[in-house]
Amino acid sequence: MRQLIIGIGGVTNGGKSTLAMSLHARIPNSCVIAQDTFFKDNSLVPVDSRGFTQYDVIDSLKMDEMMCEVRAWQKDPAAFQDSCRLRSQCPKMSEAAADMYTLIIEGFLIYNYRPLNELIDMKYFLHIPYEICKERRCLRTYNPPDPCGYFDGHVWPMYLKNRNEIEDTVSDLVYLDGTQSREKIFANVYKRIKMEMDKMPGKTYLCVLVLHLNCKKQSKMHVHV
Question: What pathway is this protein a component of (predicted)?
Fold first, then answer.
């Protein structure tokens, strides 16, 4: 049985979830674990002197529970996939590909937690400029909603801090420009994943999506490796 763990990290509103779900929809036997489903209860997250809740720190997350999920997948990915709410929509693969399982982990601090970072085989990091990030953040609805000044006073400074931390400690990060079209980002990452799978022993059938950047034509083909 072959396993591949892919990390999709990066800035808030950078396109992490979109990319993760696009990959999940195209890669057979894949599951997604999203870090933002492991936030602690609001009452347990510290608030600073300005009244800003400290969501953008690793202590705001139940990382022990997240690691349990990852370990459960590693132990028995087939059983984990059966119990997972997120299922791949690819056509059923042949028996030759039945032993290939992929876990996609997405989140804003996945590389800042060493036990998790050490398990990830392929690491991607989406980044966008301050102005675009702030604009996208303002267009989204959060519960609880962002207080006045929260982005400039907490979110962006913590992003820079957390990014600087991983740039000093994490190797093999592939940086992705989140201002590019989602189709172009997906095609780039998917190509890299396919190349990595090609290096792994055994045979794999991949459902390959050929994307045209004008988004007007799409075609599928099956590749026998």
Answer: Cofactor biosynthesis; NAD(+) biosynthesis
Number of domains observed in the structure of the chain: 1
End-to-end CA distance of the chain: 16
Q: Is 85 exposed, middle or buried (0-12, 13-18, 19+ CB in 10 A)?
A: exposed
Active site residue 36: yes
Instruction: Specify whether the CB–CB gap between 20 and 8 falls below 8 A.
Output: yes
Half-sphere exposure of 34 (CA within 13 A, CB side): 14
Task: Read off the CATH number of the domain in which 7 is found.
Answer: 3.40.50.300
Name the residue range of residue 195's domain: 2-224
Regions of the chain where pLDDT drops below 50: 86-88, 91, 94, 96, 203-225
**What's residue 145's pLDDT?**
87
